[in-house]
Amino acid sequence: MGFLDILLGRTKAVAPDLDQLFGLPSAALTLQAAAGFTPTGTGAVCFASVEGGAFAQAHQEVQELLDADAERTGPPVEVSRDEYGYSWLVSRRDPDDLPALVSDLHAVNSALEGSGFGPQLLCSVAGFQDTGQRRLGLVYLYKRGTFYPFAPLAGEAQRRDNALELQVKAALADDLRIEQDLSRWFPIWGAPGL
Fold it and tell me: Residue ranges of the alpha helices (H) in 21-94?
C-alpha cells in the first residue's frame, strides 16, 4: 500500500484464508461452554449465482470429491437458491462430527476458488442451536477472512438477537478472527440450516 492510498483512505483487501475455517471445532467447544450452543451438523457455502457449463463442471467436481468420503452418512451436497437470488451449496453431517463438516466447507470453497469462481464466493456458515432451540450461525466472510455470529430470532420475521451476537463475539474473540466492523455483520436470511 502506497502513500497515496493512505491519504485517500484506501485499504488493501484481505486475502481469503480458508484455513481459518479449521478454527471452528475449537470455537464450538468454547461456544458450548460459554452459551450452551452445539453444532446442528448443517453448513453451507453462499455464492453469487452462476450459470453455465463451467460452473456445472465445478459443481460436479465438488459433488464427486465429497461423495468419495466413505464416512458420509447424509445426502450429498445440495444446491439451493434463496429469495435474494444467492446460491447455497449445503452439506449435512452428524452434529457430533463438526470437523467433517468444516472439511466439507473448506473443500467446496477451495474447489470453487480453484475453478475460477473465487470472486463469486460470499460466505460460509456453520449452524448451531441451544437447548431452547435458539439458532445461531457462525459466518465466515470469504473476502474478509473473518467470522461473525448471526442469530435470527425464532418466529420473528427478519429480526436478530443482537445481544446474543455480541455475547458470542466476546466469547469467541480468542478462538476465531472476529469481524470487528459490525456493519459487515450482514443478515443471511434464508440461509439453509438457520
Answer: 24-35, 53-67
Domain residue spans of the chain: 14-184
Closest CA relative to residue 91, chosen from 82, 81, 79: 79
In the three-class reduction of DSSP (H, G, I as helix; E, B as strand; rest coil), residue 20 is classed as helix
Three-state secondary structure of 96-161: CCHHHHHHHHHHHHHHHHHHHHHHHEEEEEEEEECCCCCEEEEEEECCCCEEEEECECCCCCCCEC
The architecture that CATH gives domain 14-184 is: 2-Layer Sandwich (3.30)
Average pLDDT, the chain: 86
Beta-carbon contacts of residue 109 (< 8 Å; ≥ 6 apart)? 16, 18, 21, 45, 121, 124, 142
pLDDT band at 7 (very low <50, low <70, confident <90, very high): low
* Nearest by Cα to 119 from 128, 129, 109: 109
